[in-house]
């Protein structure tokens, strides 16, 4: 009987999956119209796309002016600006948008540091590249020093370039990267201090964090630029850019401290007790056991803070620094390009999105690489 049953079963091959569950139709049915509510929201989303995307594409691409050396190609029959993007404006002001008023003859200094940074990042991202730790150490310690001497000049035969000439995307990257690199270690120390058993250290860290989180960044920048020099001795002053860097770093470190503290609180108490049972002191326990796990847990929060800091650099315009967005506004104020600020904002939005999206994707790569829940 068993042999007969096996024979009968063997005569019937496996059936193909239903056509409604495979292919394009299966994907649409599973992801877009699986329930009446999902079907409603799918139709609503398609309708919104129909309303918004075609006009935006027409303004950005199809009706836009693309080629020209002056603003004549961006004017309509009445002499006013066309109702579409004017990309010759971006082309004409591309150098100030990227580097501000930095001297043309010295731009190679900025470009060289860009190439070094780009090669260093590629070395960290590509798995097959050896000596990643040394590359990371180079980017964290010697590289900022090299950038300072390259940008400021005045030594090693380089022409001095005053910081008021710095601007554009170059200045935005200087402020953002300095704030990002400096705020993370300060935030870690503040988070550890806030969880400390020493009352004085804990009180100082709490006061610092709550003070800087309780005021807007624009107030911090205004105080660092206008009020801070009033408290300095006569004849002592710091560069406006340095004051802005310090203000941005301290402001961001307060938020970073709370992100890291959330990761520390998520670590089970058994990890601390296990490290203490092994005889590790506080420093080794944090460095080898607790902090690696905590930082891995809060990668999304850390990157979110970095992205917010990168976009907040636009506020330095209130103290007279021409960052990327400031240069876009300055270009649109030129008498030859009046009326094309929207095009500049569209270009700025694209650039900011590229950088923020890149940071987001790299953070997701780190999460997948460090994932140990499998």
Report the CATH architecture of the largest domain: Orthogonal Bundle
CATH evolutionary superfamily of the largest domain? MetI-like
The number of E-state strands comes to: 0
Helical content class: 55-70%
CATH topology of the largest domain: MetI-like fold
Structural class: mainly alpha
Number of domains: 2
Task: Provide mean pLDDT, rounded.
Answer: 87
Q: Roughly how many Å apart are the termini?
A: 45 Å
Q: Number of helical segments?
A: 17
Give Rg in angstroms: 28 Å
Overall 3D shape: globular
How much beta, percentage-wise? under 5%
Give a short account of the largest sheet: none
SSE order, as H and E? Answer: HHHHHHHHHHHHHHHHH
Low-confidence stretches: none
- CATH C-level category of the largest domain: Mainly Alpha
